[in-house]
């Protein structure tokens, strides 16, 4: 049992199908490719080219683009430093789930702050 927020009864629920089994089914290993850069620097273009090329090679990928994610999951966030931090944290958590599912997750966000990039990278170690 662990304490999460105000709850003291949150248990980790194991999946009946393991990560290795998913990898075998998809014939690929899940991972995250995180593309950073200033607005207009070519992140989305690169993400789209990579996703198309992977698809051509029979590999399942999915793009988490900053512009798109801010239409839904992160529509409550703006561009203050703390909002950008939360944006990166949430996308990092979603990317981790995609990678665990076996997909090649391509995250394309400005990610301007080193501390946020480092915190995100630490989620995967
Ligand atoms: N300051 C400010 N004001 C208004 N709009 C802005 C601002 N900063 C970014 N943008 C736009 O938001 C798009 C997504 O940004 P990100 O989520 O990648 O930014 S961040 O990683 O949270 O810093 C981003 O997309 P890209 O241009 O593709 O980078 C911009 O269209
Ligand atoms: N390698 C490149 N050379 C020249 N122009 C590019 C290149 N990559 C992207 N662009 C152009 O730059 C603009 C911004 O690209 P975009 O991928 O939307 O950037 P971002 O996602 O970082 O905001 C688009 O008009 C795109 O066609």
From TrEMBL:
Pathway: Sulfur metabolism; hydrogen sulfide biosynthesis; sulfite from sulfate: step 2/3
Catalytic activity: adenosine 5'-phosphosulfate + ATP = 3'-phosphoadenylyl sulfate + ADP + H(+)
Alphabetized InterPro entries for the sequence: APS (IPR002891), APS_kinase_dom (IPR059117), P-loop_NTPase (IPR027417)
Recorded superkingdom: Eukaryota
Pfam family, one: APS_kinase
Span of domain APS kinase: 29-124
GO biological process: hydrogen sulfide biosynthetic process; sulfate assimilation
EC number: 2.7.1.25
CDD domains in the cross-refs: APSK
Gene Ontology MF term list: adenylylsulfate kinase activity; ATP binding
Biological function: Catalyzes the synthesis of activated sulfate.
Protein family according to the UniProt entry: Belongs to the APS kinase family.
Protein known as: Adenylyl-sulfate kinase
The encoding gene: cysC
